[in-house]
Structure formats: structure tokens, C-alpha cells
Design goal:
7 helices; about 20% strand; globular; about 230 residues; five-stranded parallel beta sheet; alpha/beta
Amino acid sequence: MSEPINENPTPRQSPSVADPPRLPFPPVVLGIAGCSGSGKTTLAAELARELDGTHFPLDHYYRDLAHLPLAERFQQNFDDPELIELPLLAAQIAALSRGEAIERPLYDFTTHTRVPGRTQTIAPGAFLIVEGLFALYYPQLLQLYHLRIYIDTPDELCFERRMKRDVEQRGRTPESVRRQYVATVLPASIRYVRPSAVRADLSVDGAGALDWKVERVLKELRARGQLAGI
């Protein structure tokens, strides 16, 4: 079920006047990180389906680059964690972890800008699956997770998957994909993403079957007493 999109939402009232809707219990929050092409998005989506939870990718929180000329926007390194608006991201995940609904920004990846006057209402479920390159990189997010997961996938396989996706789904040429991977994607993986694996509670093999990876996560949740009845 898609979440509602709000056009030109009215200003939010102060908490003393109207508290945001919330769950009667805090959600179980999972953080999933891995390199580009590691399979983290596929795992997060499948866990959200299995647990009837909320898949929460970090990509919506790229900074609004509307102040830059279009040509300069495309020259930015989107594999750098500084391009994510961390204060807003951390505040909204914290609100969801308390069982509160949020108004998530909408991001236009064709122009690298926030969609003005529009947000997406995200109401937390029993499980919140936070997923992205830097899900285990930012210290502000680590304390919010009940389980931290890293998908360990060989660089060669990550590159093959990214090549297939970008050529088939995004209409890019193999050469442009290769240039970007060498220039920004792989260096960012080495500098930021792979070192964050030490912060994980659970590491899964990104080359393994999806159902095996899902079961590894479910088994860990059961062992921690966070998965009653599933």
C-alpha cells in the first residue's frame, strides 16, 4: 500500500496543541548497510514484506541542490555521506522509533532537488527497516537500532549488479557506469561503507540466496526476543 502524498501541507501545530499520531508501542528498528549493489535494498524490501514493516531508504534525504546550476548538481558526489541531510534524517528516524508518524520529504532524482510543497506521510509499523549506504556510518543513527545488519558482498559482484541495473533500468551506457564506479562508488565503499561493517550485530553474505538472508535476520530477531509469533 502506497503512503499518501501531501500537497502543500498546512504548518505543523506545536506539540502542546496537537501531538502527532503514534503507536501504542515503539517499533523494532533495523539498520541495514552495504555497498552499492550489495543487495541491501532487496533484503530490506523482503523483510518489510515478511514482517509487515516499513521499508525506509535513506535516499530521500539527499540535500536539496536547487541553489546550484543544473550542471553543477550532476557533478556532486552522491556517494559521499555529506550529501545526506543528517539532522533531518536522524530526527525523523528518532520520531518513527518512538512510534510517531512523520512527513518525509520527496526527492526528485532527475533534478537533484526536493519537491517543493510536497511530503509523504510515513506511519510506523511494528518494524522499521532503515536501509542505505550509510545506515551504519552515522553515529546518530546507531543508538536507534535494535539490530544492525551489514551485507558483505564482493566488489566484483556489486559492480556486476550495478552495471545491470543502471544499463537496463536507467538507460546508461556501460562505459559511463564503469567510469562512475571507479571514480566515486568504489572509493566511497572503501572509505565509508566497508569500515562501518564493524558496527554490525549481524553480517550476512550478499552472494547468498535471499531466503537464506531473510532467515538469518529472523533467527537473530527471535534470539533477541524481538520476533514473537513469526
